[in-house]
């Protein structure tokens, strides 16, 4: 028996993947992926194009179903749950290519996300959406039609819409891609502030200096397999990882 003063962590991972596999015909896009992400953690996922990174997000959010394995979120098995149910339970996600309602204003985009992502009335989410506009640097664009936004503003709107669903887990899919160095630094500062408030973050990114300035752990995917996981400095010192990233700025 352990002494009475011995303290053991009883924290439960917010997300667990157990042997997740997926094939499209003869192409394996996820092979026996097992992963646990702790509540409040910031995890980065890297890998070359075609490694299966976005497919993994689609499996987590329910956009595609695994061929085998289980997915647990907040301790509940969500393997067969539809995307909307996962969103309502606390999963928020951005996409590589921002997908706003282009004919609605920025604020209206958030109202739609907030209302449908939390099953609340627009009046109930209005104040929260206004706060998110401030947090994401979009308050001065609140009444601007989303279709007229610049790339950085669209990226920020994509992030803001995900936050409007009140996520406990935020999945970011290459949100820094295509931005200038200055725009990237600004976006990273926003993501850091979001994570500091206790939101768990899983971030897929090719802009590694941005990713490594936020995350505490990196997972490396290659052809649907996990080939490494650990602290960023350990992963980026790996010869195998460097070979995979040959030609990509580290």
Explain this structure.
- With 250 residues, the chain is an alpha/beta fold.
- The protein has 2 domains: 134 residues, P-loop containing nucleotide triphosphate hydrolases (Rossmann fold), CATH 3.40.50.300; 76 residues, no CATH class.
- The protein is built from 9 helices and 10 strands.
- β7, α6 and β8 form a beta-alpha-beta unit.
- α3 packs across α4, α3 runs parallel beside α5 and α4 packs across α5.
- The longest helix is centred in the last third of the chain and has 16 residues.
- The radius of gyration is 19 Å and the shape is globular.
- The chain starts with 14 loop residues before the first strand and ends in a 6-residue tail after the last helix.
Task: Summarize the structure in short.
By secondary structure, the protein is of the alpha/beta class. The chain contains nine helices and ten strands. Helix 3 (106-118) packs across helix 4.
